[in-house]
Structure formats: C-alpha cells, structure tokens
From TrEMBL:
Family: Belongs to the IAP family.
Protein's name according to its UniProt entry: RING-type domain-containing protein
Keyword Acetylation among record annotations: no
Coiled-coil zones: 130-157
Sorted UniProt keywords: Apoptosis, Coiled coil, Metal-binding, Zinc, Zinc-finger
Top-rank lineage group of the source organism: Eukaryota
Domain RING-type residue range list: 153-188
GO biological process: apoptotic process; chaeta development; negative regulation of apoptotic process; positive regulation of protein ubiquitination; protein K48-linked ubiquitination; regulation of cell cycle
S-adenosyl-L-methionine in keyword set: no
GO cellular component labels: cytosol; nucleus; perinuclear region of cytoplasm
High-level lineage: Eukaryota, Metazoa, Ecdysozoa, Arthropoda, Hexapoda
C-alpha cells in the first residue's frame, strides 16, 4: 500500500485534486458499498464511510475513494480516521476533513480522538404568560431556524457547512460533500481550491 505524498495545500487553501475513485466521493455511495459487509461486529460501516472508505472486499478490505489507500484486518478498537491518517497521511480528503494538526498528532503520538462534528442542541420549554411574549418567542424560533438553515450544507441538508470554495468564496458545503463537487452549486464557477472553515 502506498500513500499520497503531496499535501495539496498552499497558504491554507487546499488545491483541488481529483479523487482516485470519484464514483465514491459521495458519503451515501460509500455507505451503500457496505451492503455485503459481514464485519459489522468489528467496525461500523457508517464510520468507515465517513472516514472516506468504501468496501471492496475480499473479507474486510476497504479503500479510500480519494487516495486509493487500502486497509484491512480491522480490530474492534481501531478508529477508521486514525488508521487512515496513520497509513495515508498525504490523503487530500483527510487533510480537508481533519487538518494537518490532527494528522501530525496521529503520526507523532498514535492516539488522537476525533471530535464529533455534529452540533447538538437542547430545546427549552418556555412558559408563555402573554401574547407579546408568544410573539417574541415565535420571532426567536423563526430566526433560530433561519440561522440553522444558513449553516446547513446545501448538498446533503444534514451537516454543517465547513468548506469555502475558491475562487468564488461560497460557503455551502460540509466536509463530506465538498470532495464530490467540482463546480460551485451557487455560481457554477470551477472550483480550484477549498478552505476548511470552523464556525463558532
């Protein structure tokens, strides 16, 4: 197995590289590749797919859609992101999603946890005592929904946006959907670079 050696980054902007298997650039397609996966007791197919891996067989062999790195002989304790980064640190997809710091930590220390990108929110129950407070609450809910929609990936409509496309500057895609997009969905400009963003 060989790994990509070039980082594809210049000045914080990730240069667009064609994935080795563009048919598997979509997370949903990678998940579907695990249809005949018989190792669910060892590794969760969704976690493997999120780490850029799709099932090829035989046995428990998976490959990265972007760098074509292959991994197998999974243990229950293996973290797909960690194993992918440890074996194929130059993978353009890994660098977009995890960043150089995470990959360097994996290579240096071996044990690094990945934070869940999902944002969890709790809903509070508000007692309404007057019609004016009801109106205020409705306005707040509408604004909250609008803000959530602004931060939502316009491709999958489930995850938070996290990649700015260059040169147009549109922020419309999550890190899972971005590798499958070559023209900006907003302005149709050819994407020549990607910048990973973190919204606070």
């Amino acid at each position: 197995m060989a790994s990509n050696s070039s980082s594809g980054q210049r000045g914080g902007i990730q240069q667009v590289e064609m994935p080795y298997m563009p048919d598997y650039a979509s997370l949903d397609t990678r998940i579907r590749s695990f249809r005949n996966w018989n190792y669910g007791h060892v590794q969760d197919p969704t976690r493997l797919a999120e780490a850029g891996l799709y099932y090829t067989g035989p046995e428990d062999e998976v490959r990265c859609f972007h760098c074509d790195g292959g991994l197998r002989d999974w243990l229950v304790t293996d973290d797909p992101w960690h194993e992918h980064a440890r074996s194929f640190a130059g993978c353009n997809f890994l660098q977009l999603v995890l960043g150089e710091t995470y990959i360097s930590e994996v290579l240096r220390n071996g044990n690094v946890g990945i934070a869940d990108e999902g944002c969890t929110t709790s809903s509070a129950t508000v007692s309404q005592t007057s019609s004016s407070s009801t109106t205020s609450i409705e306005r707040l809910r509408e604004e909250n929904n609008r803000l959530k929609e602004e931060r939502e990936c316009k491709i999958c409509l489930t995850r938070e946006v996290g990649v700015v496309f260059c040169p147009c500057g549109h922020l419309v895609s999550c890190v899972q959907c971005a590798p499958a997009i070559y023209n900006c969905p907003v302005c149709r400009a050819l994407i020549t670079g990607r910048i990973r963003t973190f919204l606070s």
